[in-house]
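Team,

Forwarding the record for the chain on the shared tracking sheet. I've put the sequence and predicted structure together so nobody has to dig through attachments.
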Amino acid sequence: MILVVKMCISKYLYVKLHKYLLMQVKGTGIKTTKEFVKSHFESEYSTWIENLPLKSKELYTFNVEFTGWFPIQEAYIQPLENIISMFYKGNSVEGGKAIGRFSADYALKGVYKVFLLVASPQFLMRRASKIMKTFYKPCKINVAENGNKSVVLTILRFDKMNEALEHRIGSWYQRALELANCKRVTYTIQKTLTKNDSATEIVFNWN
């Protein structure tokens, strides 16, 4: 009897711990991804939904709860991979950039538009890094100044990172800076978790 109780407790703790450690994305990521396809490829939206893996299709067809958390593989990575395959000829960089810029417009012209009124681009980027942490968990993201018109974004923890996600994040910040009236904003990925570096490091510059 004691052994059974111990096994039940261990299983409960494993489930709770596994859920905490599992990389997740906020439901707003599902909403933004759906809106991106509807906005850019409306005539093929139904086909895109039909081509999703079963679990992803269920999330994108029946889920209306956008404040909850969902496994990033089914809710984010696989739908993005389908977008890249169907609409960008497999080009992860271009697909990631397109949806990243759209996501920034969607967020920063909506509920987060107040961040466009802050005093400096550096402050905007620091605030934006906090916004990003409300989209993904668990993750660790830092922003540091790198001169007068440059910042470095360091992603120290982000399970299941891939090339498309790096450019989705990089282009999100790039567009955020543009919306804050920075000119000729560029970004360069100096290090990457996808190649077993200790972190993904993205350097942003503007005029």
